[in-house]
């Protein structure tokens, strides 16, 4: 049973509550890689990047990172996030949630346009999300994607991240390293 946000749980409890909620919601989902990795690996990686590489200790960001794809990819509603984790976490999750009613290309363009207007919390989450996905493009890429498509993904991720800069230099440095490695790896495949 998830604790009420009013009860102010310890940081460990708060994170474990978010992990349990997210793992349950994503339990029947897999990533797009050949091995069909468990989906929950991704939000865990995003939260870990924020904490370990970005030095983030703000529980709102870390919980939002763990929950960041629940509204977009599962039956979770923003109201449900607020009930379990409070209005601030709900707000950050909503900021990084695409409108699924729009066509894919438009959603991708809107991510680029909205990035500079996100809160600092959401900007950091976006950078960590793109870092994880860009890294996956070479370590465990979506099955069947052409080299060109992976390259296009890196270019798009870079445009989104450009709008999120200025909020966490350490995290941005890790992103820069990961995208440089990604471009190098794709160039090596093409050569
Ligand atoms: P997506 O953008 O939906 O796929 C990438 C997303 O999948 C990531 O942002 C990530 O999102 C999630 N994901 C899941 N598994 C992985 C993984 N192993 N590695 C990295 N990311 C993963 O791509 P679409 O297929 O929808 O294509 C989007 C755009 O590409 C469209 O605009 C379309 O027109 C275009 N397109 C291009 C083609 C080409 O050959 N150039 C062909 C077809 C489409 P999350 O963090 O939310 O999990
Ligand atoms: Zn994500």
Summary keywords:
single chain, 191 residues, Hypothetical protein af1432, binds NADPH dihydro-nicotinamide-adenine-dinucleotide phosphate, binds zinc ion
Write up this protein.
The structure is a single chain. By secondary structure, the protein is mostly helical. It has one domain (11-190): Hypothetical protein af1432. It is 66% helix and 0% strand. The chain is built from ten helices and no strands. It has helices at residues 11-25, 41-53, 59-67, 70-73, 78-85, 87-95, 104-114, 120-139, 147-162, 169-190. The chain is globular. It starts with 10 loop residues before the first helix and ends with a helix. The mean pLDDT is 96. NADPH dihydro-nicotinamide-adenine-dinucleotide phosphate (NDP) is lined by residues 31-33, 42, 69, 104-105, 108, 129, 133, 136-137, 140-142, 146, 148-149, 152.
Report the radius of gyration as a whole number of Å.
16 Å
Order of helices and strands: HHHHHHHHHH
Portion in strands: under 5%
CATH architecture: Orthogonal Bundle
What is the fold-level CATH name, i.e. the topology? Hypothetical protein af1432
How many domains make up the 3D coordinates?
1
| CATH level-1 class | Mainly Alpha
Number of strands: 0
Structural class: mainly alpha
CA-based shape: globular
Indicate the low-confidence ranges by residue numbers. none
Largest pleated sheet: none
Task: Let me know the CATH homologous superfamily.
Answer: Hypothetical protein af1432
What small molecules accompany the polymer chains? NADPH dihydro-nicotinamide-adenine-dinucleotide phosphate, zinc ion
Measure the end-to-end span.
54 Å
Helix content: 55-70%
């Amino acid at each position: 049973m998830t604790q009420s946000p009013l009860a102010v749980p310890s940081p460990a409890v708060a994170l474990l509550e978010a992990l349990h909620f997210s793992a349950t919601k994503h339990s029947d989902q897999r990533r797009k890689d050949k091995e069909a990795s468990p989906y929950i690996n991704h939000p865990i990686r995003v939260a870990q990047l924020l904490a370990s590489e970005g030095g983030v200790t703000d529980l709102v960001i870390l919980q939002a990172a763990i929950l960041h794809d629940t509204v977009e990819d599962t039956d979770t509603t923003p109201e449900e996030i607020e009930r379990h984790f409070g209005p601030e976490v709900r707000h950050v999750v909503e900021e990084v949630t695409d409108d699924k009613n729009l066509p894919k290309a438009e959603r991708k363009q809107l991510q680029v346009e909205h990035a500079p207007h996100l809160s600092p919390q959401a900007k950091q989450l976006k950078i960590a999300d793109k870092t994880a996905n860009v890294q996956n493009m070479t370590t465990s890429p979506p099955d069947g994607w052409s080299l060109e498509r992976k390259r296009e993904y890196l270019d798009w991720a870079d445009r989104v991240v450009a709008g999120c800069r200025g909020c966490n230099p350490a995290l941005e440095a890790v992103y820069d390293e990961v995208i440089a490695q990604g471009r190098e790896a794709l160039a090596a495949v093409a050569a």
